[in-house]
Amino acid sequence: MGKSTFRGGTHPYEGKELSMDNPIQTVMPKEELVFPMSQHIGAPATPTVSVGDTVKMGQIIGEASGFISANIVSSVSGKVTKIEPRLTGSGAKVNCVVIENDGEYQGVDGFGQERDYTSLSKDEIRQIIKDAGIVGMGGAGFPTNVKVTPKNEDEIEYVIINGAECEPYLTSDYRLMMEKPEQLITGLKVLLSLFDHAQGIIAVEDNKPEAISRLGYLTQNEEKISVKELKTKYPQGAERQVIYVTTGRKIYSKMLPADAGCVVDNVQTVLAVYDAVCRNIPSISRVMTLTGDAMMRPQNYEVKFGMSHAELLEEAGGLVEGGAEKLISGGPMMGMAMYDLNVPITKTSSSILAMSKDEVAANAPTNCIRCGRCVSVCPSHLVPHKMALAAARSDLAAFEKLNGMECYECGTCTYVCPAKRRLTQSFKQARRAVMDNARKNK
Questions:
Q1: Contacts 24+ apart (CB under 8 A), 315-318
Q2: In sequence order, what are the residues at sequence separation of 6 or more whose Cβ sits closer than 8 angstroms to the Cβ of residue 194?
Q3: Mean pLDDT of 285-299
Q4: Less packed terminus of the chain by CB within 10 Å, N or C?
């Protein structure tokens, strides 16, 4: 089984040994849960409940309000106490449904009942995925029902499970591949049943040999499923890179994976499809990695949506003596610094990374020395130091001319920059400005 990779990229410290060998533990929420109506790309969901209503676990409390939108489902039973804007991990205030947990976890009718996906039609499976509120749980938050409903399903040739998990420190996908491989494979079969001409690929980096071995053994007699071993390199798990290294096909910013005949889903997303279709359990929980050198007990936890990050950290044993200088939601390369832990866990919350030292704050940026390292590692083959000049001048036309919109903010250039320049941050701001202008000019 050959290893595949791409040109560019880098090799940051992995840090996975902190949490990768411990089985997933379950943490239950306390009294109050907060459900933002925006946990996905696209239009916010519209609340379908009112203050004072009693809800059950698995009940839709927010309905998708557009084609690109997703349902929000209650992860507990209890009473709706408030519907109001609340702070979220992004720093923005979002309209939220607040539920007082009654601790009984009474499910809606049929919750948890097993069913045979082979007895369902394609339209029924897609509707179940939509009703369940499943979105891309690798961080993008794109509604999964839209992804599995392309313009022409006959043109889909590959359904790819992205099990690369290249972001340093994060190990939730690895633990799920180790602990739920049969369910993961069944979830892939559910997706393959939607596309008559597709092959299934499970893509895993070679720093996860036990997962590769386990999945390979379980799929050895599956004619339509193969396990692809990828070289360990960041950002191997980016959607563009996964498509290229597994199929040889390329996509760009104005293309969707479906344009290259591919559907790509994260490990947790595929397991959410399995739960919804085969077990009648909608998207109400996920596995998060709590790790870093300042975390008391690095570990993966299954947590319900709506639970507070602060509550999860407390249940997980908190921080080491001396605390953390920096807390990050997500990994160190693409995550966001957290300034308040009293924000709810959502479908795209992947981790709490606790670092004893804030290396970014300790290294002030200096002038570019034109060493070219950023160019050599960029997986999109861009010229970051020129893009940074255009962004600094707010010259959006020049930024676009340099193909700046092809940047997907992986952070590789910032990581290797000896001048410690905040390249990715400037690109993020420039890309947002370009998109804002495009919307205004429509």
A1: 315/27, 316/27, 316/290
A2: 122, 125, 126, 148, 153
A3: 97
A4: C
Task: Decide if 174 contacts 133 (C-beta within 8 A).
Answer: no
* CB-count burial class (<10 Å; 0-12, 13-18, 19+) for 119: exposed
Strand order in the sheet with 158-162: 225-230, 199-205, 158-162, 262-266
d(CA 262, CA 159): 6
- The answer to whether the CB of 427 falls within 8 A of the CB of 391 is yes
Three-state DSSP class for residue 265: strand
Task: Give yes or no for a contact between 62 and 106, defined as CB atoms under 8 angstroms apart.
Answer: no
Closest CA to 386 of 430, 435, 418: 430
Contact 114, 120 (CB under 8 A): no
Identity at 398, one-letter amino acid code: A
Q: Which residues pair with residue 78 across a beta bridge?
A: 55, 101
Strand order in the sheet with 326-329: 25-26, 299-304, 285-291, 351-355, 326-329, 336-337
The helix or strand, by DSSP H or E, that contains position 89, with its residue range, turns out to be none
- Most distant pair of Cα atoms in the chain: their distance: 64
Per residue in 189-245, pLDDT (tens digit) is: 999 999 999 999 999 999 999 999 999 999 999 999 999 999 999 999 999 999 999
DSSP string computed for 393-406: TT-HHHHHHTTGGG
Residue 1: per-residue pLDDT: 41
pLDDT grade, residue 137 (50/70/90)? very high
Q: What is the pLDDT of residue 3?
A: 67
Res 442 pLDDT > 80: no
Tell me the Ramachandran region of residue 277: left when phi exceeds 0, alpha when psi lies from -120 to 50, beta otherwise: alpha
Is-contact 89 336, C-beta < 8 A? yes
Please name which of 387, 418, 124, 58 lies closest in space to residue 277, comparing C-alpha atoms.
124
Task: Name the packing angle between helices 267-279 and 181-192 (round to 10°).
Answer: 80
Q: CB count, 10 Å around CB of 318?
A: 15
- How large is the average pLDDT for residues 268-286? 98
Q: State the pLDDT at residue 91.
A: 85
